[in-house]
Amino acid sequence: MIPATISNAYGQMKPAQIFTDHMVLQRDMEIPVWGFAKPGDVISVQIESHKTTTTTDSNGRWKCKLPSMPAGGPYKMSIQSISDAILISDVMIGEVWFASGQSNMEHNLGGWPWIPHSQIKNYEQELKDLDYPQIRMFTVPKLASPVEMDDLRGGIWELPTLNTLPSFSASAWFFAKELTKDLGVSVGIIHSSWGGTAIAPWMDRQALKTFENDISVPEVPKSFNRDKWVEDANTSWSSYIAFRERISNSGLDRVSFLSNSSQSEAPWKVLKKITEPDGTSSSWIWLKKELHLSDSTNSMEWCLELGYLNRQAHVFLNGLEIGYFLYPKKAKIELPPNTLKKGKNVILIRIAQPWGIPKVEGNKFTLISNTDKKKIDITNNWWILKPEVSPKPHGKLNIGSATYLFNGMVAPVIPYAIRGFLWNQGESDAGRSDFYKKAFPALITEWRKRWGKADIPFIFVQSTNYQPSWSKPEESWSRASLRLAQAEALTLPNTSMVVSMDIGDKYDVHPANKQDFGYRMAIQALSKVYGKDIQSDGPRYKSHFIQGNTLIVNLEEVNGLLSSTHNDSICGFELAGKEGEFYDAQARIHGDQIYIASKKIESPIEVRYAWSDNPECFIYDSEELPLAPFSTVY
Questions:
Q1: What is the distance between the alpha carbons of residues 331 and 353, in angstroms, rounded to a whole number?
Q2: pTM for the whole structure
Q3: 165, 77 in Cβ contact below 8 A?
Q4: What whole-number distance in Å separates Cα of residue 206 and Cα of residue 414?
């Protein structure tokens, strides 16, 4: 393995980048501290009366351990060599968690600049509740690397403020709030995630050795220019951000002009039918339609239906935005009286598709009066405007390469003392659950090994609900099998799973209610790591038996009475007979058992529950925690 460092030559003594002002160090366990200096330099590290000394090795690296300390602070950490001295201030001793994964862990409170309306639920209100100086936040800079870096390329510990909190992981923030309120100690979150990433890039080379037939692992380069690689990576990331922002936001400052422009003022082309914007290679398009209404229509209440706009769509009426839609949510807008005016009205739509070509789908494009049911078909006679050049990002992010994110965003943090891991990832591996079932436990085991503790608590979020298609949602099950693959990790010690299939958003892969995700991770930690008397798990499948034409499921972890979101019927269950084909079934709750039968299955053999990308009815216990999805044939 090539050692790759963030400094080419070690002259001045310095600690690793993870050690900065405002940091939180893990209480009640030894605290590793490491850094870089001239070979042979003697380094001393001290907090209060605790002092340790070490010697820099021939590669210019030093590492030592401070003894275990109880929660407290603020302290100062001094690091000294013969010629240099560094003082790190406002150091707290408390609880430290490493939060990682893809976009639903990355999802900042303020959302992404390149995804409109992506702030979390109650964003403005949450920013008013940030007075938690005990919480400290460290965001690992994004870097994919072909070799393991021994230091981060940047990052500092920060307190929550109006400037820092909007760009921090929302799930991790709400997790930290629950912990510090309950435990009364400082909580530090090291956040290291990257949206759209699969599991393999987060695994180290050793963990991937057993998967050579499943995945390609890049060779370690024979030579590696660290500075050039980091420079290129920074350039590529900046280019990608600009690319995404152009796709999502370009032209939004010209809505008034585009609404009123003629064909001579802007290159509008005739579009006979709204569902046929073919022949475009652009990542975004504008669509426009003029409607001429009589005097008697302006006082009516109207409903505007625009089918399904794939994928990010702004809808404007007479220059004012009246709706924003993420595919596959139906574009349906209720218009109050006097929104439409006598004479000419202009509907303007901007559709952006970062991962393909913008499309308009569906078969219902109308303006309907809620007053007298008058209907105006608006399917035909539109205008389309396409950008002349579809921008492309420069360089490569390399986020799909196995080991690269571990190398650049995990390895440099090891062996920082932590209490446990938080993990929310899997959407990019939907459709390959057989691989995930093996790879996820391997990642957990290897991360623990690299940190030097075989039983570090590992809390993960099971894939949430999401409907990827409007036309045939019932035929998509990739997330259902992924959820069961994720659950296989519960066979490892000290692992905990947050069931989230009931708290997502079927129209948005990034649900805005990150409060619920943070809370459910927190109760897992408070119950299983800190020993608090809190119910953290909902009911789970234990076993089943057959009684005539009824299959009876025994549940465990049942707390209080069970109830269904649909009181008149309990849905979500399916039965299969010897042929193996599943059919919808009816279910009844009896204590901690569920009786299930189907008119189409005389002799049931197998059962499954919530087998859908977007299950829509659930069974809860008295703590409002859901029954986990299961299948007896997985």
A1: 16
A2: 0.95
A3: no
A4: 15
